[in-house]
Task: structure prediction
Amino acid sequence: MATFILVPGAWHGSWTFDAVIPPLERAGHVVHALTLTGLRPGDDEAAVATANLDTHAGDVLRLLDRAHITGATLVGHSYGGMVIAAAADRAGGRISRLVHLDAYVPRDGESCWSSTSEAYRQAFVAGAAAHGYAVRPPDGGDPRRRPHPLASLLQTIRLTGAFAQVPRREFVYCSGWQDRTPFAGLRTRLQADPGWRVHDLPTAHNAMREAPEAVAALLLDDDAVGRSRGGDRTVSPGKGRGA
Result:
């Protein structure tokens, strides 16, 4: 039995994994899906204004402590990749697997801001113009999204080296939005790193909503080898597609 901790990307909450959780639980695993500080429905203005990357890493660490979890699999989508990297580095060996689902994989001293594309940086600035401390969600998309704490996108990560010692590290590249993805260069970098396994999903960015069955199958596949010196592993999205 594995324990999965699912961390959403910017603007999103635990609900973004709703369709991925049931197959994991049916397979007998324990699943915790987080909504990060500043993005919870009851969070006040101060919580949004003060939340940063350290705050969000702390959300994961508090769950590990509270539930006495060891050997956890952390899954981070998009900005959530920053969070699981920071948390894994501070978790004292309690993480056995990392899955960066179309997510940032930072090196020491990097931030979401420094790692993303110029188009996203411009979107962050425009989205923060109204309040200065939170970035409004892009137009369209799920109405449950909330303004995202700006400080968490700007704060640089500090990694001691423990993050790189997690036994199993995987990156999932969503190839269905190649005209806009900020992750193409990251995919190339990790393909050349024998410590990482790289998988391809032919979906747009929100794979857990477009193809939840494929995401769950990837998480459940203990024999998945992805990219490790050899070729990519492409996972079929099946029939799961959504808004």
User: Anything to note?
Assistant: The CA atoms of residues 197 and 225 lie 6 Å apart. The longest helix spans residues 53-66. Residues 223-232, 238-243 have pLDDT under 50 and may be disordered.
